[in-house]
Amino acid sequence: MSLLRIDASIQGERSASGALADLVIDEVISAHPDMPVVRRHLGQDPLPAGAWSDAVSGGATPEEDRTPAQREALATAVQVATELQQATIAVLALPLYNFGVSQHVKAWIDLVIAGTPQGARLLEGTPTVLVTTRGGAYGPGTPREGWDHNTDYLRRILVDIWGADLTVVEREFTLVGVNPALDQFTDLAAAIRTEAEQAAVDAGAMLGLEVAALAGSVRNHGGQGAPQLTSAP
């Protein structure tokens, strides 16, 4: 059993999404202190920009004719896909950037898809928490309603394509206190932050219960984890 954590913030220790993900994981680890955590930080250690095109072209090339770049890209694609497939639970901290997913997240998603047999649902039934943050406000009635092209896209990928059992924890107005133009929303932002932090704690507690239930099922019925992916399309 293992917990997969994916981060994508470029804010380092100031990451709002990372702070919420910490709360989720703290709850899990407090209940299951021996739970291994597999971590990938797409913001601090980005995947190679050209890896996706090399993986796609490599997948269409006979193995003996692949270039070193294609071989490396395909190996990376299988690795990131396998990380998802082998996760017992997953916590994905993926903030909104420039009204959509960051380039780092898109590169990761594209590589995962390149490293996955067509139709494979890597997170089928896997308890997954998506933590996402937004600097401003994008909800109904706001000036930028409909501008969040991050959250719904991630739902489509995580649930519709990969089959995750998804819980979303979100926080808006993370730039209040940073951007003076948003100072009028200080009280609202504080309330939103408190609500998001409680949602993160609750999501972590839920994951802890899921792990306990899964562990009990394994003890009672036996079983093996998903086989590791060994080839890309």
TrEMBL record:
Keyword Chaperone (UniProt): no
Binding positions (FMN): S9, S15, A16, S17, T133, R134, G135, G136
Top-level lineage group: Bacteria
A Pfam family recorded for this sequence: Flavodoxin_2
Annotated Flavodoxin-like fold domain residues: 1-164
Keywords tagged on the record: Flavoprotein, FMN, NAD, Oxidoreductase
Molecular function GO labels: electron transfer activity; FMN binding; oxidoreductase activity, acting on NAD(P)H as acceptor; oxidoreductase activity, acting on NAD(P)H, quinone or similar compound as acceptor
Cofactor note: Binds 1 FMN per subunit.
Transport as UniProt keyword: no
InterPro entries to which the protein is assigned, alphabetical: Flavodoxin_fold, Flavoprotein-like_sf, FMN-dep_NADH:Q_OxRdtase_AzoR1, NADH:quinone_OxRdtase_FMN_depd
Enzyme Commission code: 1.6.5.-, 1.7.1.17
Enzymatic reactions: 2 a quinone + NADH + H(+) = 2 a 1,4-benzosemiquinone + NAD(+); N,N-dimethyl-1,4-phenylenediamine + anthranilate + 2 NAD(+) = 2-(4-dimethylaminophenyl)diazenylbenzoate + 2 NADH + 2 H(+)
Residues in coiled coil: none
Cofactor(s) needed for function: FMN
Class of the enzyme per the UniProt entry, highest EC level: oxidoreductase
Family to which the UniProt record says this protein belongs: Belongs to the azoreductase type 1 family.
Role, per record: Also exhibits azoreductase activity. Catalyzes the reductive cleavage of the azo bond in aromatic azo compounds to the corresponding amines.
Assembly and oligomerization: Homodimer.
Protein name (record): FMN dependent NADH:quinone oxidoreductase
Organism: Sanguibacter gelidistatuariae
Phylogenetic lineage: Bacteria, Bacillati, Actinomycetota, Actinomycetes, Micrococcales
Annotated gene: azoR
